[in-house]
Amino acid sequence: MDNLNALLGGFADVITPTNLLIALLGVTVGTAVGVLPGIGPAMTVALLLPVTYGLPVEQSLILFGGIFYGGMYGGSTTSILLNTPGESSSVVTALEGNKMAKSGRAAQALATSAIGSFVAGTVATALLVFVMPEVASFAVTLGAPEFLAIILVAFVGTSMILGSSRVRGFAALLIGLALGLVGTDFVTGQQRLTFGSPFLADNIDVVVIAVGIFAVGEALWVAAHLRRKAGTVIPVGRPWMSKEDWGRSWKPWLRGTALGFPFGAIPAGGAEIPTFLSYLTERKLTKHPEEFGHGAIEGVAGPEAANNASAAGTMVPLLALGLPTNATAAIIIAAITSYGIEPGPLLLVKQPDLVWMLIASLFIGNVLLLVLNLPLAPAWAKLLRIPRPYLYAGILFFASMGAYAVNAQPFDLFLLLVLGGIGFAMRRFGVPVLPLIVGAILGPLVERKARQALQLTGGDASGLVGGPVAWVCYAFIAVVLLWPLVARLLRRGSGGDDDHSGDGDGDRPSPAAEPSRPVASEGAIR
Amino acid sequence: MTTEATTVPEGSTRSGAGPLGRVRDRAQLGLCAALAVAGVVVIVDASRLGPVTSSNDPIGPKAMPFLVGGLLLLVSVLYAVDVLRGGVGEAEEGEDVELGQGADWKTVSILAGAFVLNALLIEPLGWVISGALLFALSAFALGNRHHVRGLAVGIAMSLATFYAFAIGLGVNLPAGILQGIL
After folding, report:
1. What is the ipTM of this complex?
2. Is the domain of B110 the same as that of B162?
3. Which among A218, A256, A393, B55 could bridge B138 via Cys, Cβ 3.0 to 4.6 Å?
């Protein structure tokens, strides 16, 4: 009951004319930027960060709630109307959604995706209200060693479970950790990796890292491979659904939500696995199996709901533990930190009003999105025709503005270009970018926790082992690390002759890679 | 995976050609080298730190960089092994990305140039001028041939952002030589 009262308090804070206007602005701008091709939710949030610099923390969080959900909604519009999705979690939506659009059912695809996102977002945010405080109150009891172990799980999860190659994910994580080292050591005040530069002594701002890797890296990468002819945009009217579409959609929405939320809520989750599982589930349960592959509405409804529910689920580790598990959450953490607020288990104790207001604004943003987007879909579709030179020039323009505004020093712009170069190389070599961001954000935290833990035992390594929570975490990490070995033994045991074993440990087939097959194979022949 | 299937025959025909026979994308080895260099830099940098440890901080500031640097060296080796065994990372796809031919370095260099120009000019000339130039030059590099329109859009955007963010919201953007005019 306490939670509900607190939530009502949060609603009371949000429902003022100014704040509602800000929420509306957030969902509108978030959707508009999210619809733009090449800009996924993470980049949307990164590029729009400067908008929040001048606002007080409460209003900037309301704005973020709107941008977060708006960016997700915009992304699925793009993948339905244009195919080739902006980020891996909407790969599955594009699979059936674009087929639906091509066969003249774009309006229904958009409708089931919008309403499904609303249902999933609302249910999952309601779950968040009940789950998050429990996790937070449990997390407060954890000591430094346990917390260290949980962060290590997040490291292993983002670098080795998500993504298709463990060694590449691990490399990205280490680059992020190295970037996180740059600056002044928080205990001794010694300078590390600053190379004598006073600009680096103050640590590299995570916003600059995120904007550099996501926005500048992406713009440079696209510039190097710009499609000469823009993809065909499928025209669309106002989204609507027939009674039959409703009947076929509501169960996938709920099943998608049930799959998405838990995966988002664990520190090693992500949206790729639940969206794909939801797709498989719907394909198995449908009464219209013949439509799958040609635009089945269940194949849009389920994965879209799973995607949104998992996004709401990532708010659990984000708010309760201060752990970002997807790129968007990573940037929200960076934004919260820039207000001098320390994310972590104590956030709910120290800043309860802020947390509940953020959650309330997620609910409101969800409603606004539904009201706004059903009638506005044709207008959003027009954004897909924006001339590409202006689009990517605009990304560089806003990226520079945002990065400069953090510290008002031109040095950050050079840093941004270097980071953009790293982002470019990572895209070129198929190295995932999420582990880098997570490493850069959590690296300093992991070091602090490790040093605290060892302080308690006077440097004895037993301080790192901690209690049962830490044991479970380390057992999990050990299983993940040893998995290729175990898998090989199992394969040998069952007499299977999978000829991929020669590809090395790096090529662990991931379920998320599966739906991208048709797309990926075209590009891979070089 | 489909990718493997389409590229493996190519790799296998070369498998007898020498030690690098199975490597499908040799530039990847450059990336491994870069990771190793990064690891060495991190370790060398950490080793010149003073040995400051105390009862409050038994492991000191050196442990983490040594660990990260060491792991960077380790991952560079593992990555190289993966590459030598025929592993290849898939270049990222996207709405506007057309893989197939090589990278268009000319566009990328002009973009980087426009970026550096902005960084150099933002304080002396101000965001309105440097931002407009950044936009117009980038649009040009990306294939925009309506030069006047590109510049006009750039000026409109930099003016709009300056008034909205610097003056409206108090975000740090320099006025430069236009100080007093804007």
Report:
1. 0.87
2. yes
3. A393
